[in-house]
Amino acid sequence: MTLNKHTWCVVMAGGIGSRFWPISRTDNPKQFIDVAGVGRSMLQMTFARFEKICPRQNIVIVTGDQYADRVREQIPGLLPYQVLSEPLRRNTAPCIAYAAAVVSQIDPQATVIVSPADHAIFHEDKFVADMQQAVQTVAVHDWIITLGAQPVRPETSYGYIQFNEKPSLPRALNLHPVVTFTEKPPVELARQFIASGEFFWNAGLLVWQLPVLREAYRKHLPAIAEAFFGLGLGTPWEELERVYSQCEAISVDNGILEKADNVHVMAASFGWSDVETWDSLYDTSRHDKDGNAVFCDGNVFTYDTHNTLVVTPSGLSKTMVLEGLDGYIVAANDDTIMICRRKNEEMVFRFASDVELKKLIDNK
After folding, report:
1. Most buried of the four, 31, 58, 219, 342, by CB within 10 Å?
2. What single DSSP character describes residue 6?
3. Beta strands at 272-273 and 199-209: parallel, antiparallel or unpaired
4. What percent of the chain has pLDDT over 90?
């Protein structure tokens, strides 16, 4: 299959993956880990997925400066412009603006797909078909297309997209005008969303032509547009630091999508999860006869253990013996073991904070 040379993908890979502690840490965040136990990191799987949609040299990865070398280690042979380092984390709107500025230097008429680096896609052929349809649609309509996944539970850690039931186009029944965006609703509101049948989960994927992207920034985030659209590959690091330190930290959802009147949502035909939490990893994994999901290189022995997630990083061969657990997370790395009820996984932030504080005290 011939790939369109004007199709580009911007992969956002700057997150710190704090919800996946202790496997994911600041120095080794989720996107660089083989969370699903398939032999490739989430970034590597994302990159390979987009190689089926656009030329390899058209995939640009935006990451924190401390992770740039890690990106190049995991995906060898990238050209200089394919790894863009951010001096500071400023959410997705500045990240996308920086990448758009670089892409515009190379291909001013590009169609740009924006994707997180650490989401799970379960049917890649359907994913490719959906992306191709979105790219073809924005080629003839000045629209911003976002992808929506069918919700299957009242998830409170996801964003929701309300859509108009009338299709955007007579021959595209899977495409609808967007009505509203809601970020991480409380559980009762999430239940109402699902019951209404008018909402998708926000899959965090965007497709738009570069001129439409730039115009959206100029209209809705003019300060970011002015600061970032003058940047490029030759921008001195000190200038990047200045721009990032002075810009607003804001998501593209809050800054543009919630305000724009040309946003349409495509119903994703592929299975999707943002794998944002331990529980979401459990929900999207294969389970054994006792409902356990196990991702370990070593041996795991379970006795009267049910509905439990067991995870160690690839290459860490530990023998695990578990008895009497029901509905737990057991996650271990080379120096830490966490055992936590799945329903209490919000405690992970406290666990990580307490452990790091103790290490600081002990090292004084």
Report:
1. 31
2. T
3. unpaired
4. 73
